[in-house]
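subagent[fold] <- orchestrator: predict structure for attached chain, return C-alpha cells only, no commentary.
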Amino acid sequence: MTEPRDPATEDWTRAARRLAAGQATLVSLWGDVGCVRMALHDHGRADLTILTLPCPDGGFPSVGAVHPPAIRLELSSTAAACAWHSPPPCSICRRVSVVR
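subagent[fold] -> orchestrator:
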C-alpha cells in the first residue's frame, strides 16, 4: 500500500530543493495562523511565487535543512510567534516545531 500524497508538502520540499540548487532566491518565510508561507523568486521569471503549507500540528518540513540561509527566518518566525503570547513559552510556542 502506498502512502497518500500530500501535494502541498511535495511542492514545499520541491521549492526548498530549488533554493538549495540556486535555481530560486528565498524572499521570505513566515508563519501564519495554521500554516507557514514561503515567498521565492524563480530565476528567469518576473513574479514571485508564494507557497502556503498547512501546519495543523504546528510543524513543517525545514527549508533550512537544505538551504541554510532559511534557518534564521525559521527561528525568527518561531520567536515572533512566542512574542505575541504571554507568559512564554505558551502552548502554541511549545507546539511549533521544524521537522529536520
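orchestrator: received. Logging for downstream: Confidence is low (pLDDT under 50) at residues 80-100. The beta strands are 24-32, 35-42, 48-54, 59-61, 97-99.
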